[in-house]
Design a protein that fits this description.
The chain is an alpha+beta fold. Helices cover about 30% and strands about 25% of the residues.
Amino acid sequence: MPRPMLLIHGGAGDIPDSRIAGKFQGIKQALRCAWSHLNPENGGHGSALDAVETAVRSMELDENFNAGYGSCLNTSGQVEMEASLMEGKDLRAGCITLLRDVMHPITVARRLLEKQKHTFLGGDAAQELALAAGMEKLPPNALVTEGARLTLQEFQQQVAAGKDPFFARTELTAAAAAEGEKSDPNGETVGAVAIDADGQIVAGTSTGGITGKWPGRIGDTPILGSGTYADNSRGGVSTTGHGETIMRYNLAQRILAAMDCKGISAQVAVEQECREMTRRIGGTGGAIVVAPSGEIGIGFSSRRMAWGYVRDNTIFYGIEGQVVLQEPFTP
């Protein structure tokens, strides 16, 4: 039987020093909220599905992440969110896009997964599903933060100055950083992958997209094989970064294919495929992976990516390079 594992990420991108503390706090809080669902204190049956949903829901409430409250704004100044959730036994999935005024897209995705009739819903249909499932419809702009408004203003200023925003929305160039331009939280999508004691693998991802996107734009997060994938015989992946790049490269499936066909570890596969994606297309990103054995992989070609997991009553977490921090786990 595999050892239960919950691995989460809080997004990849040009994350400035000022946002690191908030990222770490949110990562640790999400792990504390979700861990008991995977390893019940009473010795009961843990659920990878419950653990993944709970971890992502925690980050959707936290404005330090680009998901739920704190999501990026489109050119109309509105929040349009998306999420996906997939389980690896029967390959059931729920994918949601263009969702507005609902706090937890990941839970809407779970409701769709459980209904099993359709896999992907967007716009009004996604909204109707959320409300039918008993979720609260929030007042207009309830999910808009001051940070998101300022980021949209900065994006608009860059466009007005004639700068190409295609990659700047997820990763500032070295020249832009040297000029003191503020970082954009785009790409700071959240995600989680878990395996429980029964070998069930579940992956989930949630995002607000990218600042300055056209209304109606759909990114990689709700697309199976790009933003999320889970298969008990292969592993589970959640990705983050520049959505247009990840979609074109099909990052989640590439990582699993590298593990299958090349016989390499989850860690080597995620590092290799993130590098190759950036070499071929130019955009950056990252991913987390859990193999059927419980082995994990964490990699990114972006400047930074926040991540964390629990093992041996210790929280391991990080945000840059190979630097691994740790502290005792207290539920």
